[in-house]
Amino acid sequence: MPAEALEPSQNPALLAVEGVTKHFAGVTALSDVSLEVRPGEILGLLGENGAGKSTLLKILSGVMPPTSGRIVFDGAEFAPHNPQDAKRHGIVTIYQELSLIPTLTVAENIFIGRAPLGPLGLVSWRKMEEDSRAIIARVGLDLDPATPVSALSVAEQQLVEIARALSLKSRLIIMDEPTSALTETEVQKLMSIMDRLRKDGVAIMFVTHRLEEASAICDRMTVLRDGRLAGHLDREGGPIKLPKIIEKMVGRAASELYARPTQRDVAGDVRLSVRGLRTVRDPQAPHAIVLEGVDLDLRAGEILGVAGLVGSGRTELARAIFGADRIAAGTITLDGKPIAPASPADAIALGIGLVPEDRKHQAIFAALGILNNFSIAALGRYSNAAGFMAERREREALASYRKTLSIRMASPEQAIEGLSGGNQQKVILARWLARDPKVLIVDEPTRGVDVGAKAEVHQILVQLAARGIAVMMISSELPEVLAVSDRIVTMRRGRITGEMPGVEATEEKLMELMALDRKQEATQ
Amino acid sequence: MTSTTEPSQRGGINVARLLMSFGPLMFLAVLIVVFTVLKPSFIDPINLFNILRQISITGLIALGMTFVILTAGIDLSVGSLLAFCGMVAAVVAKGGTANTLSLSTSGTQGYGWFAALLAAIVVGAMAGGVQGFAITRLKVPPFVVTLGGLTVFRGLTLTISNGGPISGFDASMRWFGTGLIGPVPVPAIIFAIAAILCHIVLRYTRYGRAVYAVGGNAEAARLSGLRVDRILISVYVIVGFFAGLAAFVLSARLNSSEAVAGIGYELTVISAVVIGGTSLFGGIGSVGGTVVGAALIGVLQNGLQFNNVSSYTQSIVIGLILILAVAFDRWLKSRVRR
């Protein structure tokens, strides 16, 4: 691809999204969104969780069609039937979950489905490897194309995906949170590759949470908020400044959806105390975030908000306290006594509960009934000494939570997967309430929960705290953190980067702390 | 955005749901009617009890296999383990491996039926425990561990028996295989009691809830405080226990423990469980289903035999039924999800 002599802004748009709207079952995920990407530029697509970024990505990559609106790609109407179709047209999306096949080699992955053939119609391995070498060199990779992909780091795999996209003559590469699993040096390397591609005339759409990275590399930005276009930002001479981005992302002083709590009187004693908590890299999950010395106090009756982006270590902190991941160093005390839960069972016995982040894979038993889902963490409480379930007591307990938490369900036997996300989450909350925990950690409590039920879940958390439970709420939705937290800490890269009382916090302040690098911290 | 909330589904009764619960049972009823029409003597109590006796051996193991499959596991070693436990029971009953071919029970100085039974179920349970340990602690998939077990237990059986059978047990032991209580064969009574106990355990106890939970979502079970590894080991102990019990009953019935007993039983047993509606992916299934599945296979075999269909053809029919049963189950589930 020849380098364009024109300034990017003078190029005609390669991709134009015009007034795209998407409805899901009564919910408007995207409303009248327009944007443009030009050849040889990097467009940042920014927005909070739930702003509509993923929906737009799915539309552009052919996963689903828009409800209304028009997309023009390379001068022609673009309506891909499926992801393959989008790829054929020259738009490749690189997701956080990479799509390479780990057991195959780099070369096999690049040429999957289109291996070069020799004279006899057999695969020409030599040509495949030679071509692969040239292709990956374009993204600055220098490795043997016969290496299996499973032996590569996430960063290298990402580059292989980009290389494959380039070899398919892709003209627009959409990268969904490409840096979330990368180390600082890997991020730098990826940025330089992106820069090189830009000079080659490739258009890149960079979807990210990381404001400073976006600021460093993007020529322009499009910011979404609540499914709408919040605005476009242009690089005018220098990088786009963080406060400007934050202003666009937040948009309003306070969300109408989340009523700010009045300062509650939280005078409880310290329940849970964490000092110098570290985890080690697990060889089974080499790319997970490692905690690098976390100090934290959680008081009885308070809601501590933990704000952090994906990859900040917030979930890892919860799992370490809960005994789900191994701790390398540091101490945890509960009511003044040191504890060392080696498994979730230990932590639960000590009075700690966890509502995990990924409800479908970590919390619900999809095929089982609501009753079984409800009582699974408290089987001992609803059974007699001989091990028989005391089903009447169990049903009564569920009935009472059904009322107090207003769980909308048909019957206790109904499979939980038939409930809406919000009602599923209430059942999971009831699961822990049945144990009367001292500490309840909730990780992304309203993910996949519709707006109305979100407020209900928040109300429940406030009530739990009022009952003296120490609640730690992890969330990447800042309005939510602000709405319910008595105190807020921010995390980034496995460390706590700041702390403030809930009433003093604003989205702007938190976002700065969440986005802050330690290097920057040191120089500021 | 993961908030693609599906339309909330009512738990009301619909045809697909009913079929899902009672499909195998209705199919069983249809088969019985068809075979009776073809040959009215099929429905004779004598023949029905005969079927019960036939299915009780694999049925017992299928009860244990239900626990295993509910946890999304599998045990391929049960046929070999049955032979091994049978041989252990024989050695205990006969007081040694000598005199293996004599059908005469006089002159043997064995330890009696109770010791033989105890030996069979303890050995079976321990063998299951070892396999469970390999699955949970060594992280070898159940399919592989029990495939290895299938070979190992057969080899152990041949080693202690020197390849031959050990035959000739006293009357008190043989009663467990051939005796009748009223008109009902003893093996069928053992099977019925075991089935009821298993049903109670799975349906009404803490442990049963845990088994379903581990099979339904092992990670969620762990994060809910269940000791997943222990539960997994326990289900292999249970299936081993039932292999031992079945071995004792089979040896008593044949008055002989054969080194080649139980070859291919794992397939019949797994078929019974799966036809009975237990999902190979875990978390869904019931003892009642397994009993119906075992009965279905028994009725099919007996009915086909009754109508002079060769055993070769029987295999074909049973295999096809297995596939159809699962296909039907899938189809129903896809309808229910809508």
TrEMBL record, chain A:
The keyword Membrane applies. It is found in: Cell membrane. It holds the Pfam family ABC_tran. Keywords: ATP-binding, Cell membrane, Membrane, Nucleotide-binding, Repeat, Sugar transport, Translocase, Transport. One of its GO terms (molecular function) is ATP binding. CDD domains: ABC_Carb_Monos_I, ABC_Carb_Monos_II. It is a peripheral membrane protein. It comes from the Bacteria. SUPFAM superfamilies: P-loop containing nucleoside triphosphate hydrolases. InterPro entries: AAA+_ATPase (IPR003593), ABC_carbohydrate_import_ATPase (IPR050107), ABC_transporter-like_ATP-bd (IPR003439), ABC_transporter-like_CS (IPR017871), P-loop_NTPase (IPR027417). One of its GO terms (cellular component) is plasma membrane. Residues 15-251, 274-518 form the ABC transporter domain. Belongs to the ABC transporter superfamily. This is Fused D-ribose transporter subunits of ABC superfamily: ATP-binding components. It comes from Mesorhizobium metallidurans STM 2683.
TrEMBL record, chain B:
It is a multi-pass membrane protein. It holds the Pfam family BPD_transp_2. One of its GO terms (cellular component) is plasma membrane. One of its GO terms (molecular function) is transmembrane transporter activity. The keyword Transport applies. Keywords: Cell inner membrane, Cell membrane, Membrane, Transmembrane, Transmembrane helix, Transport. It is found in: Cell membrane. InterPro entries: ABC_transp_permease. The chain crosses the membrane at residues 15-38, 59-91, 111-130, 142-160, 180-202, 231-253, 259-275, 280-300, 312-332. The keyword Repeat does not apply. This is D-ribose transporter subunit membrane component of ABC superfamily. It comes from Mesorhizobium metallidurans STM 2683.
